[in-house]
Amino acid sequence: MIKKVDHIGIAVKSLEETLPFYTDVLKLELIGIEEVDSQKVKVAFLRAGEIKIELLEPTAENSSIAKFIEKRGEGIHHVALGVESIEERIIEMKEKGINMIDNESRPGAGGAQIAFMHPKSTAGVLYELCEKKGMKG
Ligand code: ZN
C-alpha cells in the first residue's frame, strides 16, 4: 500500500535563512514555495533524487510547526509516505488500531491530500500519508 517515501519534512525557523544551505551548498533543485493555510506554514520543496525535502516554516504562533520548534528545536519533523486512495488507507490504519491525528485527509502542499498518524502508534515517528492526484514529482 505504500508506494515510496514521498518526502521528509523538516521544521525550520526561516526559509530565507535555511534555503541557501540546500540550494547553494547541497545544490538541490528548488521545486517551489507555497503557503499552506490549513497547516499555518510556508513550505519549500526541494528535489533530492526520488525523494523530496519539505522545509516547513511556521506562519503563526499557534502553528504545530511553531510549537514543535519551541519544544524540540529545528530538525526532522515527519516522514511522508506516498499512498493511493488515502481515505481507504486511513480506514485501514484505524482498523489495525493505529491512532490517526487526522481522521480524514486534508489539503497539503502541492495539491496533495494528507493525513498524519499519531507517533504514539508508530514508535515515535510522525508519519504523513500523502496522496498526489495528477501531480508531477
Ligand atoms: Zn509533509
Q: Which percent range describes the beta-strand content?
A: 35-45%
Strand order of the largest sheet: 2-3-4-1-5-8-7-6
| Quaternary structure type | single chain
- Low-confidence runs: none
Question: Taking Cα atoms only, what radius of gyration do you get, to the nearest Å?
Answer: 15 Å
How do the SSEs run, as a string of H and E? EHEEEHEHEEE
Number of helices: 3
What portion of residues is helical? Answer: 10-25%
What ligand molecules are bound, each kind once? Answer: zinc ion
Mean pLDDT: 94
Task: Report how far the terminal alpha carbons are from each other.
Answer: 19 Å
Report the structural category: alpha+beta
Number of strands: 8
Which sheet architecture does the biggest sheet show? Answer: 8 strands, mixed
Envelope shape: globular
Topology:
Blueprint: E1 2-11, H1 15-25, E2 29-36, E3 41-48, E4 51-58, H2 64-72, E5 75-83, H3 86-95, E6 106-107, E7 112-116, E8 127-132
Parallel strand pairs: 1-4, 5-8
Antiparallel strand pairs: 1-5, 2-3, 3-4, 6-7, 7-8
Describe the protein:
This protein has helices spanning 15-25, 64-72, 86-95, and strands at 2-11, 29-36, 41-48, 51-58, 75-83, 106-107, 112-116, 127-132. It has 137 residues and is of the alpha+beta class. The protein has an eight-stranded mixed β-sheet. The mean pLDDT is 94. Bound molecules: zinc ion. Zinc ion (ZN) binds next to strand 1 and strand 5.
